[in-house]
Amino acid sequence: MPKHSKRYEEIRKKIDRARFYKIDEALDLVKQTATAKFDETIELHMSTNIDTKRPEQQVRSTIVLPHGTGKTVRVLVFAKGDKAESAKAAGADYVGGDELVEKITNENFTDFDVAIATPDMMKSISRLGKILGPRGLMPSPKSGTVTEDVESAVKEFKMGRVEVRSDKTGCLHVPIGKRSFDTAKLKENLISAYKQIIALRPAGIKGQFIKKIVVTSTMGVGIKLDQADLEAAS
User: Fold this and answer.
1) Where in the chain is the domain with CATH 3.40.50.790?
2) Average pLDDT for 27-38
3) How large is the average pLDDT for residues 210-214?
4) Average pLDDT of the residues in 14-18
5) I want to staple 87 with a disulfide (CB 3.0 to 4.6 A). Which of 70, 77, 104, 129 is the partner?
6) 63-89: average pLDDT
7) Cβ-contact 83, 42 below 8 angstroms
8) Among candidates 165, 188, 175, which has minimal Cα distance to 70?
9) Mean pLDDT score, 51-61
10) Long-range pairs, 17-25, Cβ under 8 A, ≥24
11) What is the mean pLDDT of the chain?
12) CATH class of the region 17-68+161-233
């Protein structure tokens, strides 16, 4: 087993790994233990009852956090003509058509966090699947990144719209802010994220959708949340 740092071991001593914490206490604790020299991201990790062998049970959508994530989101838009101008006006970092496709193909350019495309561009960018797919950057209607309304999409992702996507183990991972956020904003983001994710429950799941929820920071230790407290707050 890998040896943890002294800092990590000190953090572990402050957290009861067997306990399920109330929201306020968990967020206070995660902020106290996020002691890295940078502004750590606060994240939710959710274990679900998704049957990963059934494609129709996979979750892929987006949610909007009331206070954003605290992260500067770099947005690339595949669009032409008026749509490209709308994307630029909305604050997109990179906008283009076939020239952007060539840049990604030839230079393996992936210096962005979100890729949005108008429907008419999907044929041109289909060959980028092998590059963008593994990085979770390929535009998709399910994630709201294939749209005619590129202006709204760019603004929403810039303001705090995030993709929620189940991984190969059926878990969901969602950033809800930064250590520098006050607890009240983190709490509002957490509750909002939970409510929106519950609404994404795929049909056919048996039993409880979300089995366990952990809140942690980038370099921190997982703190288990009392789901009954979270449901009551929702």
Assistant:
1) 75-158
2) 92
3) 96
4) 83
5) 77
6) 95
7) no
8) 175
9) 89
10) 17/221, 17/222, 17/224, 19/224, 20/224, 20/225, 20/226, 20/227, 21/223, 21/224, 21/225, 21/226, 22/226, 22/229, 23/187, 23/190, 23/191, 23/225, 23/226, 23/229, 23/230, 23/233, 24/183, 24/187
11) 92
12) alpha beta
Query: Length of the chain, please?
Result: 234
pLDDT of 216 higher than 90: yes
Predicted TM-score (pTM) of the model is 0.78
Q: Is 78 in a helix, a strand, or coil?
A: strand
Kindly give the residue spans of alpha helices, DSSP state H, lying in the chain. 6-13, 23-32, 81-90, 98-107, 122-125, 129-132, 150-159, 183-198, 227-233
Looking at residue 3, what is its pLDDT? 58
Q: What DSSP state is assigned to residue 202? A: P
At 178, which amino acid appears? K
pLDDT band, residue 52 (cuts 50/70/90): confident
- The label of the residue with tokens 């956090």 reads 65
How would you class 229 by CB atoms within 10 Å of its CB: exposed for 0-12, middle for 13-18, buried for 19 or more?
Answer: middle
Is the domain spanning 75-158 CATH 1.20.58.1560? The answer is: no
